[in-house]
DNA sequence: TAGTAATTTCGCTATTAAACGAAATGATAT
DNA sequence: ATATCATTTCGTTTAATAGCGAAATTACTA
């Protein structure tokens, strides 16, 4: 029963990684925790789509959420015991380091500020 | 130009890994090189679908093909310089080792024989 | 308690991907 | 060279996924 789920877990992880915006989110979260509207601002897609991406990353085990006032902070899960998940989180920053889009995302992350962004 | 392709390469690799039959194929190829009809026999899907999966794995860099008489042998690419690709090939066997479907695939691989299978 | 703001969920549309069978291709062997 | 067989490509159908906007939810705050 449990054993038959191993491959499904792997597939869920790899599917989560198969989308450009989700890779961008993961890389941003290596720099700091972010709320939905901060991510929305950088990706330039709707807030509902961001929320969906975050739930896919959470289901796969990559990120955790925590309430912070009226915001929800999302951050990388650094406590997972999953071998693939840990390796990916380790390798991705090196791998995507030189990607132009990732580079500009990471610059924007430094100065993004939820207090200026929100009030949808 | 080239740099903008880094993320697309990553996405291609993760998409290739996001399918059950392709994971099964990769694991089988860790044991020995196989032709299309041998893989078809174990997966129980049509030969054209197997061929499509193999082309996706080849495009992502996971496997290589070589002619062998009237057959085409597919084998793992162990010469890649790609960081993600190498790590995945290293980790996957450990990760999927206990999956029941993978276990039965790997038993079947031992005795599969193209000479008995073919004549579609 | 009512209002407001952040986030999630729902319903929909458009695109992508997996599967099949049939036809085309490539290569061996008679 | 022709027949045969393994594989690939093509055309189609069906299922999954990313995106949007609107409605629902959750939780501060006035």
Topology of helices and strands:
The structure is a homodimer of 120-residue chains.
Chain A: H1 6-16, H2 20-29, H3 36-43, H4 47-60, E1 63-68, E2 71-76, H5 83-96, H6 100-111, H7 114-117
Antiparallel strand pairs in A: 1-2
Helix pairs in contact in A: 1-4, 3-4
The structure holds a DNA duplex (30 and 30 nucleotides).
Entry keywords:
Arc Repressor Mutant, subunit A, DNA-binding, two-stranded antiparallel ribbon, 120 residues, mainly alpha, homodimer, 7 helices
> Quick one: CATH class of chain A?
Mainly Alpha
Helix proportion of chain A: 55-70%
Give the chain pair forming the largest contact, with residue counts. Answer: A-B, 27 and 27 residues
Stretches with pLDDT under 50, minimum 5 residues of chain A: none
What is the CATH T-level topology of chain A? Answer: Arc Repressor Mutant, subunit A
Major beta sheet summary of chain A: 2 strands, antiparallel
Derived from helix and strand composition plus strand pairing, the structural class of chain A reads: mainly alpha
Query: Rounded to an integer, what's the Rg of chain A over CA atoms?
Result: 15 Å
Label the overall shape of chain A.
globular
Spell out the CATH superfamily of chain A: Winged helix-like DNA-binding domain superfamily/Winged helix DNA-binding domain
CATH architecture of chain A: Orthogonal Bundle
The quaternary state of the protein chains shown equals: homodimer
User: Average pLDDT value of chain A?
Assistant: 92
Report how far apart the termini of chain A are: 45 Å
Spatially, the strands of the biggest sheet of chain A line up as 1-2
């Amino acid at each position: 029963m449990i054993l038959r789920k191993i491959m499904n877990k792997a597939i869920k992880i790899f599917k989560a990684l198969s989308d450009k915006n989700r890779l961008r989110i993961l890389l941003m979260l290596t720099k700091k925790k972010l709320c939905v509207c901060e991510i929305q601002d950088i990706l330039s897609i709707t807030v509902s789509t961001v929320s969906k991406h975050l739930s896919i990353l959470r289901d796969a085990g990559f990120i955790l959420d925590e309430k912070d006032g009226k915001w929800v902070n999302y951050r990388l899960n650094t406590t997972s015991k999953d071998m693939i998940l840990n390796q990916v989180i380790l390798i991705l920053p090196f791998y995507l380091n030189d990607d132009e889009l990732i580079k500009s995302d990471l610059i924007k992350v430094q100065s993004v500020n939820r207090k200026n962004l929100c009030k949808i």
